[in-house]
Amino acid sequence: MLTYKSSYKWTDGVALGSVLDFPGTIAYGNSLDEARHNLASALRDVAETNLLKAEALPIPDPGATDPDADLEEPIHLILQAGQQITTTVGISAP
């Protein structure tokens, strides 16, 4: 399991989410729960793409922070190996 850090900002009634230590992983939702779900899907998709392209996953940075974020929390990426690559993403609610 790799634990990255997600951040969320609210603007114009929309929650914008990003994974601070996994560049290019962003999502949004009309609620925090929807943004969390969409960001987990985006993290899974970006991680699978990296692996399929034989690219390394970024090393999690527990010190990553966004001073403009309204909320920061861990987001977990769980990898399983086998005949095909499977990933699972989970969010730890504070």
Describe the structure.
With 94 residues, this protein is an alpha+beta fold. It has a single domain (2-91), classed as Double Stranded RNA Binding Domain, CATH 3.30.160.250. It has one helix and five strands.
Name some characteristics of this structure.
single chain; about 90 residues; alpha+beta; Double Stranded RNA Binding Domain; 1 helix
What portion of residues is helical?
Answer: 10-25%
Please tally the helical runs, counting DSSP H or I stretches of 4 or more residues.
1
Rg result: 13 Å
N-end to C-end Cα span: 19 Å
Number of self-contained structural domains: 1
Shape: globular
Write the layout of secondary structure elements.
Blueprint: E1 2-11, E2 14-19, E3 26-29, H1 32-52, E4 71-80, E5 86-91
Antiparallel strand pairs: 1-2, 1-4, 2-3, 4-5
What's this model, at a glance?
This protein is of the alpha+beta class and 94 residues long.
